[in-house]
Design goal:
Blueprint: H1 16-19, H2 23-38, H3 41-48, E1 49-52, E2 55-59, E3 65-69, E4 75-81, H4 85-96, E5 102-107, E6 117-120, H5 128-143, E7 148-155, H6 158-161, H7 171-184, H8 188-196, H9 205-210, E8 214-220, H10 243-252, H11 259-269, E9 287-293, H12 295-308, E10 312-323, H13 324-341, E11 349-358, H14 370-385, E12 393-398, E13 410-414, E14 418-419, E15 430-431, H15 432-440, H16 444-450, E16 454-455, E17 466-472
Helix pairs in contact: 2-12, 3-4, 8-10, 10-11, 13-14, 14-15, 15-16
């Protein structure tokens, strides 16, 4: 595990020297780390929030601004959750100082704060600690009145961390359902549609608890499209989904949920359980949610690094989704086209993408995560494309530093990682048969680890989901051999 830096927004990659064994690999690493660092709450707060006297200005990623005069409120309270919520709370507290009158956030990456309680939780499946912490955050919101301002801090991971089950759902029901959904290949929007209808805080219910106070939501988005109703399961946003939608997700993905879960959803469909608050509900009259960082934040920083190195950067999409191994094939094909035809961009080039790829797990899966599967699949495709040593490099990471349930953020691979032997004069760390078997068994992590390809950063303090970098040098620039 890499050592912590004195600057909590600095990303340190374990064995960086070994990974950065040539200029293309070094560039891929620099793009990844720059993207993660740009999305760290300390940097986000510095870029997106400013204070002039008591006037707080918030600049959203879409370029719009909102201003709040903090002096008009009796109290300023903070509530929220997410992988980065602790760092977010500390950064907001540094900016606002004694204008903050208290608060509570739930996170799995705690840091110290003076005025805001940073409480423990677990991710990606909820825990008893998270349940207690979520109740504390809800109590902060519920204690606010019409003369107060609640600042809601929401980041990726908030859905699992803000674990306050509905009254008839116990923690084991919630945990079992969450684990089954995560293994099913369901999208985050689908998963959150279910979680909202099993929760006392998600799907706009935290906003309802805070009413009639004003609420200013600040979100670091980890979801494709940056929909506030999906980020952390939308605790401050109207919920467009229904109990029927939640049941349909379970049916569509063959999820055998506990009886208490299906019973609640079915009773909700029948009208026996109140729906989540919808658009137009008075609970949202004083609520304003702003996206202050997203995958685009990371992509823009990575693009700047590439351009500074005189590589032509091209953002393919910030919304990549689908099965990880299939998405990797498309990315590899675009890299091949760049190499062969100079389209859609001529080398030296860096292709960038973000979003959230998924993995549909079968019985008895191995160890890994979507980014590791993406990297391994990409390495197989690059080997199949032709001559090794052209220098194509692919890095794929989860920006929170935790890919799947492993200690790796993702992996860095190149066109010399996988092969059928050394017949072309290039030594390969991983033979094709082993790589294909690992991919089919969803066991990418041990194979990539043995090949020295895993990227380990430890918790990064942020979460804007996946970030992928493909580097295509202008020409062969490597000596024989591999790292």
């Amino acid at each position: 595990m890499p050592e912590q830096s004195d600057d909590d927004s600095t990303v340190t990659v374990a064995d960086r020297e070994g990974h950065a064994s040539d200029p293309a690999r070094e560039l891929a690493l620099d793009c990844v780390t720059a993207g993660i660092e740009a999305a760290h709450p300390a940097n986000v707060v510095e870029d997106a929030l400013s204070l002039d006297g008591d006037r707080l200005t918030v600049r959203s990623v879409d370029g719009t601004e909102t201003v709040r005069d903090l002096a008009t409120y009796d109290r300023v309270l903070v509530a929220g959750a997410g992988n980065a919520a602790g760092h977010f709370a500390a950064a907001v507290e540094r900016l606002l100082g004694d204008r903050v009158d208290g608060g509570a956030v739930v996170t799995d990456d705690p840091v110290e704060a003076e005025r805001i309680d940073v409480l423990p939780g677990d991710h990606p499946t909820p825990s008893e600690a998270g349940v207690e912490s979520a109740r504390a955050a809800r109590e902060v919101a519920g204690d606010a009145d019409e003369d107060d301002l609640v600042i809601g801090l929401l980041t990726g991971g908030g859905s699992a961390l803000l674990a306050a089950p509905a009254t008839e759902i116990d923690l084991d029901d919630l945990r079992e359902t969450t684990e089954a959904l995560l293994a099913s290949g369901a999208t985050i929007s689908e998963i959150n549609a279910v979680r909202k209808h099993l929760s006392a805080v998600k799907g706009g219910r935290l906003a309802r608890a805070a009413a009639p106070a004003d609420v200013l939501g600040l979100a670091i988005s980890d979801v494709t499209g940056d929909d506030p109703a999906v980020i952390a399961s939308g605790p401050l946003s109207p919920d467009p989904t229904t109990f029927a939608d939640a049941l349909a997700v379970l049916d569509r993905h063959g999820v055998d949920a506990p009886a208490a879960v299906t019973d609640r959803l079915e009773r909700g469909v029948a009208g026996a359980v109140a729906e989540t608050p919808k658009p137009g509900d008075p609970a949202f009259d004083g609520v304003d949610v702003r996206i202050v960082a997203s995958a685009r934040t990371a992509l823009n920083a990575a693009r700047e690094v590439a351009a500074d190195r005189r590589y032509e950067p091209l953002v393919l999409s910030s919304r990549v989704r689908g099965e990880a191994r299939e998405a990797a094939k498309t990315h590899a094909a675009v890299a091949e086209e760049c190499r062969a035809a100079g389209e859609p961009v001529a080398p030296p080039a860096v292709l960038l993408s973000a979003g959230e790829v998924t993995v549909t797990l079968g019985n008895d899966p191995g160890a890994g995560g979507p980014n590791q599967e993406f990297a391994l699949s990409a390495a197989l495709e690059l080997d199949a494309a032709g001559e090794a040593g052209d220098g194509v490099v692919v890095a794929s990471v989860d920006t929170d530093g935790i890919d799947g349930a492993t200690d790796a953020a993702g992996a860095l691979v190149d066109d010399r990682l996988v092969g059928d032997g050394a017949g072309d004069g290039v030594e390969r760390p991983l033979d094709r048969e082993t790589a294909e078997r690992a991919l089919d068994a969803h066991d990418a992590s041990p194979a990539l680890d043995a090949a020295g390809a895993l990227l380990r950063t430890g918790p990064t303090g942020t979460n804007v989901n996946d970030l992928r970098v493909s580097v295509i040098p202008a020409e062969k620039s490597r000596s024989e051999g591999t790292k």
